[in-house]
Design goal:
By secondary structure, the chain is mainly alpha-helical. Helices cover 28% and strands 0% of the residues. The protein contains one helix and no strands. The protein has one helix at 10-25. The protein is elongated and about 60 Å long.
């Protein structure tokens, strides 16, 4: 079976996977620049309908 990545060996891939596991499973942002994180909605914001089927008036 061929691997899709020939840049690293399988051992290096496993090491990188292990290094990133805490970041991926962490309960906080993984971004290095916090300003890029979206802000949570405020408590007094009105509800915005989410995407879904739209009604067509005939």
């Amino acid at each position: 079976m061929q691997r899709g990545n020939s840049k690293h060996s399988s051992r290096e891939d496993d090491e990188l996977k292990h290094e990133l596991e805490g970041t991926v499973r962490g309960n906080r942002s993984s971004r290095s620049e916090e300003w890029r994180d979206p802000e949570p909605p405020a408590d007094d914001d009105p509800d915005v309908p989410t995407a879904g089927p739209t009604r067509r008036e005939s």
